[in-house]
Design goal:
By secondary structure, the protein is mostly beta strands. The protein has a single domain, classed as Kelch-type beta propeller (Neuraminidase), CATH 2.120.10. The protein is built from no helices and 29 strands. Strands 3-4-5-6 form a 4-stranded antiparallel beta sheet, with no helix packed on it. It starts with a strand and ends in a 6-residue tail after the last strand.
């Protein structure tokens, strides 16, 4: 169920050892964000025999346990694809509506404040789906997605407004966004990368790696350090790094992976997660190279990871996804030594 931009993957892997968290709903989780060791959110979508009945999953960590959150602000049908936090709150984005039988999704953003969940008004047209969200403060956030055309929305502290995009970006859907300040943000769509400099969004040069590829997640810690991950058409891992001057490809320890999410806390500390033919699900950047950290043995239920985040102020982390069949939500914790 864990997916990259709506594309689902499944590979054979092992059930993780230790106290992995499960939620009492069938489905998968695609995004996670934390403000502290005692506060985090995870989002996803239920899995049922009929996609007509799939609905968003919203879960909260209170420092002791993960619990699902019910709210009238959440649609009865739809999905939440990503979540971001900022001091005092957070945002979760996705789509509302039924995607089968000719149904058209509608953009969905909900605000998270303590235990409260509130759906917010968005500028029209309403049709579309949001796949990424990033926030640096209560007055600065970005949400990205699209339907027939790419879409970037900006929160200015009062309302969400549509951002003007370069004329070259007339087709496609943005899959990921990251921001470090009011003058530095990145968004990815297919092999294309766009940058916000505080005044406008502009397309930057993407590396030519000799084959078509799709970027689905991006993370940044400063104007001189950012990561983007994804996969090629033959499901080979793609990892790109921004050093302040240009984007370039960085080798993966095992190219046979589909990477679905990346997060970074500094130039020497980053995680990328996903799934692959090798069973590799978590890669760690130590400032010099990416290392394979989680490689489950074959012959046990498959699982995949769709989201990852650091838990400030520590080097601990959360990762979310699904395990099965039957498909169930999965939440793992990195305690500085091992994923459990």
């Amino acid at each position: 169920m864990a997916h990259a931009g709506g594309r689902q993957f499944r590979t054979a892997g092992a059930a993780p050892a230790g106290p992995a968290a499960r939620l009492p709903v069938p489905g998968g989780l695609d995004g996670v964000a934390a403000r502290s060791p005692g506060s985090a959110w995870a989002v996803g979508q239920t899995s049922s025999d009929s996609t007509d009945n799939d609905r968003p999953i919203l879960a909260r960590w209170n420092g002791r346990a993960w619990r699902t959150v019910s709210s009238p602000a959440l649609p009865s049908r739809g999905a939440l694809n990503a979540v971001a936090t900022f001091p005092g709150g957070g945002w979760a984005v996705g789509q509302a509506g039924v995607l089968v039988h000719g149904g058209v999704p509608r953009n969905l953003i909900v605000r998270l404040a303590g235990t409260a969940v509130r759906r917010v008004r968005l500028p029209g047209p309403a049709d579309g789906e949001l796949f990424g969200v990033a926030a640096t403060s209560a007055a600065n956030a970005w949400a990205v997605g699209g339907l027939d055309r790419p879409l970037i929305l900006h929160w200015n502290g009062t309302a969400w407004k549509r951002a003007q995009l370069p004329r070259s970006l007339r087709q496609g859907v943005f899959r990921g966004v990251a921001a470090t300040s009011r003058t530095n943000a990145w968004a990815v769509m297919g092999p294309r990368i766009v940058h916000w400099n505080g005044r406008r969004w502009g397309q930057v040069v993407s590396p030519d790696i000799g084959t078509r590829y799709e970027l689905v997640s991006v993370a940044a810690t400063s104007a001189k350090n950012a990561w983007a991950v994804g996969f090629t058409g033959s499901e080979q891992a793609v990892i790109l790094h921004w050093d302040g001057l240009r984007w370039k490809r960085v080798p993966s320890p095992n190219p046979g992976d589909v990477l679905t999410a990346v997060t970074a806390s500094s130039a020497e500390n980053a995680w990328a997660v996903g799934e692959g033919h090798s069973g590799t699900l978590a890669l760690h950047w130590n400032g010099r190279s990416w290392k394979q950290v989680m490689t489950p043995p074959p012959g046990t239920p498959g699982f995949a990871l769709g989201g990852v985040c650091f838990i400030p102020p520590s080097r601990h982390a959360w990762a979310v996804g699904d395990i099965g069949p039957p498909v169930e939500t999965l939440i793992l914790h990195w305690n500085g030594t091992v994923w459990r």
